[in-house]
Amino acid sequence: MNNLATTTAPSAIRLLGTALQHLDIDSKTWTTVPIPEESDLQGYLDALLAEIASKPQSRAYTLASDSTECAVSLAKFHAAKALVPAAAQALAARLLRIEVATDERYGHLAAAGTTHVKRGSFLQFFYEDGNTTGYLAVKVEHQSILDETDFKRRVGLGESQKIYKAFRVGYDTTGRPQQALIFDTNAKPSVYWWNDVWELTPVRSDEINTREAVTHIIHVLQKVKKTAPADYTILRNATVAAFKQSGAMDFDQFVTSTFESYVPTEGSLKDELPSLVTNLRGLPSKKKFDSHFTLAPAAVPFKQMKVQLTNGISLSYDEDLPHLEGRIWSTKTDDGREVVVIDAPDASKQFPFKPWK
Q1: CA 302/CA 264 separation, integer angstroms
Q2: Burial status of residue 44 (CB atoms within 10 A of its CB: 0-12, 13-18, 19 or more)
Q3: 224 φ, ψ to 5°?
Q4: pLDDT, tens only, 282-332
Q5: What is the C-alpha separation between 342 and 97, in angstroms, rounded?
Q6: Does the pTM of the predicted model rise above 0.90?
Q7: DSSP 45-57
Q8: How far, in Å, CA of 51 to CA of 58, rounded?
Q9: Under DSSP, is residue 242 helix (H, G, I), strand (E, B) or coil?
Q10: Widest distance between CA atoms in the chain
Q11: Cα separation of 57 and 166, whole Å?
């Protein structure tokens, strides 16, 4: 354990204590690693905290109760204004114990010669940020590198591309832990990390996150409905289709792939698209839903889209229709009539045939 109470970070963050343990799943042991005052780990932790603070992939949780091992340790840290060695080591032992159990349960899914739970180190630090205090715990996976001095393969902590799971929590003025945030560089946060290790409960269910996220996106899209109606139709359908899938939702990545990479069909949207993307990226914090959750397709409230074509004629289609632009489109006939075309070979037999003019 290393007492860094007098160390001042480059930012407003002041570290009050750090701990580093190497975890060995194979031998089922953990080892506390002393942190020299002149080591580069201080800067590594500062950069890691800044990186985590800016990451959009997060989900809010609450502690299951005040009596869990995690909650008790957090209370001890706040009371001592430091990382109490015994409590910090107890958390490291708990993490190793759960990782060993998880690996024994799912180890058969790993490639030959590897473990399901990746080998790594457990970093903890307790800090002050302005008038608040916080705790950050990080499981960083070990990465293999080829040393350029002797060309021997070594294992260590990656700097440029970190692979980690993190747990961050702040305290209120009474010393009670506030909402906790979970981060994971994997596509989906590992259940064992937030549920088994930290015994957390999600603040918002997957159903709430799915419904809130897709509803607010569609609301933002209303701004381009009048100026770029064709693009609105395509983007709305793509959004609903994405949220009706099963699996993990990484909101920031969704915005990138669906909106930022989109090539508008109407020129009016080209200038509006950057601000639209910015507005969408800010939705999780502004509208209070998580940016990282598991999709619940049944919670999507949009089922069918109905378009009034003309008096007495309307068009209805499923909102998640695949390849919409290749199945319904508009065009103009040789004699100047604007028409809607539907690629429907079977249904076409129910209407009189007329040659294209």
Answers
A1: 23
A2: middle
A3: -105, 5
A4: 999 899 999 989 999 999 999 999 999 999 999 999 999 988 989 999 999
A5: 60
A6: no
A7: HHHHHHHHHH-S-
A8: 12
A9: helix
A10: 86
A11: 11
